[in-house]
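Reviewer has doubts. Consider these tokens.
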Amino acid sequence: MKTQTLYHDANAVREAAALIANGLPVAVASETVYGLAADATNGTAVASIYAAKGRPSFNPLIVHILSRDEAASIAVFDSVADRLAAAFWPGPLTLVLPLRAHAGIASLVTAGLSTVALRVPAHAAMRDLITACEVPLAAPSANASGTISPTTAAHVARSLDGRIPLILNSGRTGHGLESTIVKVEDRRLIVLRPGPITAEALEQAGGLPCTLPDDSHIVAPGQLASHYAPRQPVRLNATHAMPGEWLIGFASVQGDATLSRTGDLAEAAANLFAALHEADGSARTGIAVAPVPRSGLGIAINDRLQRAAAPR
């Protein structure tokens, strides 16, 4: 398959929508990372996402829609979910909620679970594409499964060239980390994947404490132990490079590249995947990453780094 890259405009969106209507996946930017979008109501189309990514079938996908009202036709909302949606949608929050009967979502999207992951994106490209397609879009990150997530169209092409027909180029994404994923349960919010929205912000908006998952059952994207993985081995909490390593710095640790020279966690999150792509494309035989504080947005950054460094 020949992969075409078009800059995001009305004509490109129409072409992308036509491909999706024919059951093919298209790469498109969101405010988090680039996603690989297909019709969430068409099982064959959803299967094309899994085929392009080489994604395990037990790993669910996020369904992207335009509004809370549209989401409520797919999942059951309670008062806590309503408060979170009001606070953070459109934006980088994914809610895992009970799936409504006859919601019309392909069973492959939910990996056979009784819940569904929903997000209302803020990025114009993703919203334009959903509007043009007139269906919910399933859209995991637009990269081969388990590899570094893409924050530019070039990152998508590096991973999926020849596997998908089209990449909508909207430049670099804003947050640089995938959405925060939260499962709403009685008396608690379970943070299934840390992301741009912190636990503190969730607790304030939702009025419930945040906890981590209490088992290893995969109910949302990004829960695999080894994920976001470069081809080279990754060493964490490094203050200097060992022979043959590419050092990604942070704050006072200066390397071949840096997440943030000033120690700004938002800047570090935005630069994380681009820095990993750059390191992985070098001729070095390993990647070292400087320590990043484990607070606020640093929790999400360390989550991605730990999965990138996990044995595989």
